[in-house]
Amino acid sequence: MFIQRSDALVLNSVNDNVIAGNQFEFAPVRSIVEFAIVGSATGLEVDILIGARSVVTRLLPSTQNRFGIYPDDFTIRAGAMAGERIIVRIRNTTGGTLTAFTTVKYTPR
Q1: What does DSSP assign to residue 16?
Q2: Helix extents (H) in the chain
Q3: Neighbours of 38 (CB within 10 A)
Q4: Distance between CA atoms of 108 and 54, rounded to whole angstroms?
Q5: CA dist list (Å): 84 to 21, 30, 49, 51, 53
Q6: What is the pLDDT along the chain (109 residues), one digit of tens a residue?
C-alpha cells in the first residue's frame, strides 16, 4: 500500500498534513510505515507523527526534485497500529514556492 503525491507550498506556508483525506491517512492494518520526503530545493522542514507519537521533527529532506527512490530515499521508518493517523506536516521556510514529493509505504505486520 502506497500514498504518493506532490504538493506546492507557497512562501512561508505550512501544510499540516499533506496526506489528509487520502484513503490511507489512517493505517489500514498494523504496519511498518516508511517515508520518502524529497523537496525541489532547500528550505522545507518536515514533521512526521503516527498517532500521538512524534517520529521526526524538523527533518530537512533531500533536494533531488523528484519522487523518492526505494530504498535510497526512504529514510524514516516506524510502526503503526491499525487505525492510527499518519501526519506528514511540511513547512516552507523560504520566500518562494517549493514542491514537496511525498511517498508513504505500508508493509503489513
Answers
A1: S
A2: none
A3: 22
A4: 21
A5: 14, 9, 10, 5, 10
A6: 999 999 999 999 999 999 999 999 999 999 999 999 999 999 999 999 999 999 999 999 999 999 999 999 999 999 999 999 999 999 999 999 999 999 999 999 9
Burial of 55 (0-12, 13-18, 19+ CB in 10 A): buried
Q: Where are the domains of the chain?
A: 2-108
Cα separation, 10 vs 6, in Å, equals 13
Per DSSP, the residues of 52-68 read TEEEEEEE--B--SS--
- Phi-psi domain of 95 (left: phi exceeds 0; alpha: psi -120 through 50; beta: other): alpha
**Hey, what's the cell of 76?**
524514516
Cis omega (within 30 of 0) on the bond before 71?
yes
Length of the chain: 109
Class of domain 2-108: mainly beta
